[in-house]
TrEMBL record:
<feature type="transmembrane region" description="Helical">
    <location>
        <begin position="89"/>
        <end position="113"/>
    </location>
</feature>
<feature type="transmembrane region" description="Helical">
    <location>
        <begin position="165"/>
        <end position="187"/>
    </location>
</feature>
<keyword id="KW-1133">Transmembrane helix</keyword>
<feature type="transmembrane region" description="Helical">
    <location>
        <begin position="219"/>
        <end position="240"/>
    </location>
</feature>
<feature type="transmembrane region" description="Helical">
    <location>
        <begin position="20"/>
        <end position="37"/>
    </location>
</feature>
<protein>
    <submittedName>
        <fullName>ABC-2 family transporter protein</fullName>
    </submittedName>
</protein>
<feature type="transmembrane region" description="Helical">
    <location>
        <begin position="133"/>
        <end position="158"/>
    </location>
</feature>
<dbReference type="GO" id="GO:0140359">
    <property type="term" value="F:ABC-type transporter activity"/>
</dbReference>
<dbReference type="GO" id="GO:0005886">
    <property type="term" value="C:plasma membrane"/>
</dbReference>
<keyword id="KW-0812">Transmembrane</keyword>
<feature type="transmembrane region" description="Helical">
    <location>
        <begin position="49"/>
        <end position="68"/>
    </location>
</feature>
<keyword id="KW-0472">Membrane</keyword>
């Protein structure tokens, strides 16, 4: 299992698409701060505004899930023939995009934060503000992992790259609005569903939504992310066990 993960990570990190995506994101993060150079935007304001992009990461991690490609190329069967169990293979398929996404986000974050301090003035920056932002990001990570777990689960069900991509994007982009519409037209009880959506909880961690969040208020979102990850992974393994791989 470990050797398979290492091999897939090596393949993923050396893909041209991965390198181009990473380069574009790094250049965008640095150039954004470079354009803001001057007295109008400070480090405090730049970091605060950047936090509003947390929900967008859900769509970024989607591109690192490559199950549909392997199902199309019929390479998964070769892996299973080599002796790797279905359970370990499925878990590997969850772990690999998590690591690739983490590397991408970490590098982009390093370059973005570094460029803010390089090009912009501190403003009202304080250690308490930086700690609070760090806690928000840390509590968002389990929700991103949950999104990846859902993506892997969805890709095994749909098996088609385009069907998977459009369905994944539509669910995360439109589900919140659809549930809110049901709340308005049918019953307020649907807010119970809205409040446990992955996107709702990621948005709740942004300073724009909740500027005065404490760690105790953030932890339920992180816990929800872990719960979703376990649920989607277990269901995915059960489905994969029964799936015929050609």
């Amino acid at each position: 299992m470990l050797n398979y993960i290492k091999a897939e990570l090596y393949k993923g990190l050396n893909r041209l698409s991965y390198k181009v995506t990473l380069l574009v994101l790094v250049l965008l993060s640095v150039s954004t701060n470079a354009l803001f150079t001057g007295p109008k935007v400070t480090v405090f304001e730049s970091l605060d505004m950047a936090m509003s992009c947390l929900p967008a990461v859900v769509f970024l991690v989607m591109m690192y899930i490559d199950v549909t490609e392997e199902l199309k190329d019929k390479t998964l069967r070769n892996v299973m023939v080599s002796g790797l169990s279905r359970e370990k293979l499925y878990i590997s398929k969850v772990i690999i995009p998590i690591i690739l996404s983490f590397i991408t986000c970490l590098l982009v974050l390093i370059f973005f934060v570094g460029s803010t301090f390089l090009f912009l003035k501190p403003g009202n920056l304080s250690p308490a503000f930086l700690i609070n932002l760090s806690l928000r990001i840390l509590c968002a990570i389990p929700l991103y992992i949950a999104a990846i777990s859902f993506g892997v689960f969805l890709s095994f069900i749909l098996k088609n790259q385009y069907a998977y991509a459009y369905t994944y994007a539509a669910i995360f982009a439109l589900m919140g609005s659809f549930i809110k519409l049901l709340c308005a037209l049918v019953s307020n009880k649907f807010y119970g569903i809205y409040n446990i959506l992955i996107t709702t909880n990621i948005s709740a961690l942004t300073p724009i939504k909740n500027p005065n969040l404490t760690l105790l208020q953030m932890l339920p979102s992180a816990g929800l992310g872990f719960a979703y990850t376990i649920i989607f992974t277990i269901i995915g393994i059960i489905i994969f066990r029964k799936m015929e791989i050609k």
